[in-house]
Amino acid sequence: MQEKKENNAQNKFARERYAALVKRMTPKSAFGQGCFRAFWVGGLICVLGQALADGAHAWLGLSSAASLTFASVALIFLTAFLTGIGVFDRIARYAGAGTLVPTTGFANAMVAPAMEFKPEGWIMGTGVRLFSIAGPVLVYGISASAAVGILYYFIRW
Amino acid sequence: MTVYLKAFFVGGLFCVVGEALILKTKLTPARILVSYVVAGVLLSAAGLYGPLVRFAGAGATVPLTGFGHALAQGAIAAVQETGLLGAFTGGVSASSGAIAAAVFFGLITALLFRAKPKDT
């Protein structure tokens, strides 16, 4: 009897401590929650990328630079597949920038509109919409790299 | 093991910055993607991104800034090899894997799957 009472008291103590812990760990605002979700999902995607790169390095014998490229290609494949079966959208709605900022965001931005505008035809639908967001990314990315290359030719820092 | 921790924290941090930009400014996702790639090109050209890749591995190459880094380093390396022409061949060569994969898998996915009606 005495023991049971002690047990109850202990349980109550544990419950209160747990409630306090949950309260402390739960982000207080939409901003905090958004950042928290983006952080852990985005971080996990990068860990997956690192694991893919290490695997390619160990089992396929790729150089460390090539294995990082392999990891990007594999993540792009995975994103395309998950977008196709409709799962990526659900993850992205939870994670926000956590799936947008990694290479998965680039891949999804190509695949999703290409799928959505398929009814408008293979050329003007899928073919054009593949680049509706990737287009600007490539335009400014490639232009910036060409500018860096030209500058480097003249200055060689 | 530590490389995974570094990848997690650095990669996660890139995403937190993106999330903060989305929530605090009116930047659309398309603008975020463009900004990240261009920022990666600039950081790489300034010599800041290379050390980050050596530190965090995929934590630095998987975010889109890593795509910009590949573009910039490709252009610089090609200029060293072939001169001015390299400014135009190097960037796309170095990032061709990701570009071709996204185009190819994007097309195949569009071929195989139908977009679900949006449930909002």
Write up this protein.
The complex is a heterodimer of chains A (157) and B (120). Chain A is built from eight helices and no strands. Chain A is elongated, with a radius of gyration of 24 Å. In chain A, 84% of the residues lie in helices and 0% in strands. Chain B has one domain. The N and C termini of chain B lie far apart (40 Å).
Category by helix and strand content of chain A: mainly alpha
Number of strands of chain A: 0
Q: Structural class of the helices, strands and pairings of chain B?
A: mainly alpha
Give helix % range of chain B: over 70%
Mean pLDDT over all positions of chain B: 94
Shape of chain B: globular
Query: Cα distance, first to last residue of chain B?
Result: 40 Å
Number of strands of chain B: 0
- Major pleated sheet of chain B: none
Question: How much beta of chain B, percentage-wise?
Answer: under 5%
Radius of gyration of chain B, in Å, reads 17 Å
Order of helices and strands of chain B: HHHHHH
Radius of gyration of chain A: 24 Å
Q: Stretches of chain B where pLDDT falls below 50 for ≥5 residues?
A: none
User: How would you describe the oligomerization state of the chains in this entry?
Assistant: heterodimer
Summarize the biggest pleated sheet of chain A: none
N→C terminal distance of chain A? 80 Å
Percent helix of chain A, as a range, is over 70%
The share of residues in extended strands of chain A comes to under 5%
Number of helices of chain B: 6
